[in-house]
Design goal:
Helix 1 crosses helix 7. A hairpin with a 2-residue loop joins strand 6 and strand 7. This protein is α/β, with parallel strands linked by helices and 218 residues long. It has a five-stranded parallel beta sheet, sandwiched between helices. The protein has a four-stranded mixed beta sheet with strand order 5-4-7-6.
Amino acid sequence: MSEQTPSPYFDRRGLIFVLSSPSGAGKTTISRELLRLDDNLVMSVSTTTRPKRAGETEGVDYNFVDEKTFTRLTKDGAFLEHAHVFEYFYGTPRGPVEKALSEGTDVLFDIDWQGTQQLASDKNMGADLVSVFILPPSTEELESRLHRRARDPDDVVRQRMEKASDEMSHFPEYGYVIVNDDVEQSVGRVQAILEAERSRRSRLIGLHEFVQDLRGID
């Protein structure tokens, strides 16, 4: 279901495709699968003050900076959105996203509700935003997933579970909601949302002229 080439009939402005969820609900797994399947979707690379983990690559997974640099970039308006999550700061660089959208490329965001609110309120970006909130099938399953991935110690898992309730309360702010009870099916649902939004009339550049030509009107 990937859009590998642009329409031969008219152009399209890219869109901001946001996936949000509490930790462990599956947004990262779904994001990776979407990127693998779709040639016209790129990942927004966030800037963070979080230390680099084993296996992560600068400029691919994140742009890693210290807190002083992050503060300066924030004051300079370099971020589309930024948030403080679990002791660290995260922000989305404005320039690369604006360039991709103008070229008709869709940009995938793996951010929380705070960042999504900021994007929605941005007068230049709000119209480009498509937001999807991913819920776990149950609280028990969410906790089980956090333990199974064995990336965080028990105290951090407890913190994430405590935070999950607040995060999930923001689902009404999103355009779409899916329950991730099966990853393959969830990826399919998210793909369907993406394809439908790509055909939204407001995103199609030159459509009016194309239809006028079909009608034989100069």
